[in-house]
Amino acid sequence: MEVNYSNYFSELEREIIALNNTSIDLLTTSYEIIQFIERKLKEIHKWLKNHVFKTLQEEIYFFKELKPKLVSKLIYYKAILKLVSTAPQTKKDKRKQYEKLLSEIRQYALHNREFYEYYRSRSSYKDEDHFVRRSYKDIIKYDCCLINYDSKLSTSHDYNVATIMANDLFTIHLENKLDELDGKNVSKNVPIDHKFNWTGTKVDLTEMVYAFQATGCINNGNFDLKELAIFLGTMFNVEIDSNLYGHYSDIKSRKVSKTRFINTMSEKLIEKMDNEDSKKKP
Questions:
Q1: Is there a domain that residue 88 lies in?
Q2: 9: which residues sit within 8 A by CB, 6+ positions away?
Q3: Cα dihedral value 64, 67, 72, 78, nearest 10
Q4: 17-71 pLDDT, tens digit each
Q5: Statement to judge: residues 154 and 33 lie in one domain
Q6: Which of 128, 148, 181 is the last residue of a domain?
Q7: Overall domain count for the chain
Q8: What is the structure's pLDDT at 137?
Q9: Cα–Cα distance for residue pair 119/266, rounded to 1 Å
């Protein structure tokens, strides 16, 4: 596995998207993606057994941001596979099934409320406890269920993050299925050639989403913010919709330069034009 973790996981994400776009149906798609992720996780686990991270922050980033995103896709597509393969025939029974699953997701969130709040607020004061690997002796102090964990491969909470991510994805899917039952238009997945990847921060892109609405330059500002966030996330291979409002709260709470990214864009564009003009002068 490459030492450049972000590039490695970004490439895995692109391969998952490619599988999602080329498969014939949702059942086949889910099965193929599950097989792909399980193969990759075996490679990652083999690498982790002997890998030593250079810093605690590097290890926290790996187990809080990178690994959970991949594992969340495994959880999500296994849930989709089960949903599709056990789908009832009638609309009434389908609605009952979707609503039951949404209720289970809400119950999970309530049961794990403390960690949900910690993760959603993008807190970091417990990161060293939650996302740094511990010895076998240390890790079982946290929760009895961790007794079967391999402490070289996991931390006490990286799977919790993956579950939250997967539940966010599954919630969107279930809500779309309910909309279909109600005869509402639901956007279909369109194959996209991901040549462009967002390399700024998720907060930067969130700033743009809200600016598009405030300026009225898209649909005169009449659109659902989360729908645009999902669209841009699909275009640029990044997920911002699950914590859109949290990012916006961070932007509003800035003491200096609330529109930091937009201001930087303006400054950089002006600088580029000035440099081009200066080169033309004799």
A1: yes
A2: 66, 69, 70
A3: -150
A4: 888 877 678 888 899 999 999 999 999 999 988 888 999 999 999 999 899 999 9
A5: yes
A6: 181
A7: 2
A8: 47
A9: 32
Residue 42 in domain: yes
Do 143 and 238 lie in one domain? The reply is no
Cα–Cα distances in Å, from 20 out to 24, 29, 241? 9, 6, 19
Among 37, 35, 9, 33, smallest CA distance to 22 is for 33
pLDDT digits (tens, 9 = 90+) for 239-273: 787 778 888 888 988 888 899 999 999 999 999 99
**Domain span holding position 239:** 202-280
